[in-house]
């Protein structure tokens, strides 16, 4: 079983990357879904990162694929998915890339959805939540082909 910690959309709040690692020190993987707006790239050390629509100065890939146990993850920020029929666009990307888990940010709202053999995960935002959600990140466990996700709320004082 592997533990994957996923964060997104801290929008320049550099302390969030270390805060998440301090809260989850025993993760097997750390993923950042973009819009870190990190002051310098070294802040992202230890994270598998993709570029968000506000990461102008960071040289990061637009998407990444990662094999963990028996599932393949597709990671992107999500700014090109739109807001209507978003799940259809995500499923299309999973199918075309031969992946089972779609991980993205951009909406600032947590999401964990299972659709047949596909999973969709958005950790929400560590700094600027939307839609009535709280500041959050996601802890994903992968055991063989089984995927589970819990959201961890970040205290207002952070």
Task: Tell me the layout of helices and strands.
Blueprint: E1 2-7, H1 15-23, E2 29-32, E3 48-49, E4 63-68, E5 71-76, H2 86-97, E6 101-103, E7 110-115, E8 118-123, E9 136-143, E10 146-153
Parallel strand pairs: 1-2, 2-3, 5-6, 6-8
Antiparallel strand pairs: 1-9, 4-5, 7-8, 9-10
Largest β sheet strand count, sense and barrel closure: 5 strands, mixed
Instruction: State the share of residues found in helices, binned by percent.
Output: 10-25%
CATH topology: Purple Acid Phosphatase, chain A, domain 2
What is the alpha-carbon Rg in Å?
14 Å
Task: Kindly name the structural category.
Answer: mainly beta
- What shape does the CA trace take? globular
Please, could you describe this protein's structure?
This protein has a single domain (2-153), classed as Purple Acid Phosphatase, chain A, domain 2 (4-Layer Sandwich), CATH 3.60.21.10. Helices cover 13% and strands 35% of the residues. The chain has 2 helices and 10 strands. It has helices at 15-23, 86-97; strands spanning 2-7, 29-32, 48-49, 63-68, 71-76, 101-103, 110-115, 118-123, 136-143, 146-153. The longest helix is centred in the middle third of the chain and has 12 residues, at 86-97. The relative contact order is 0.21.
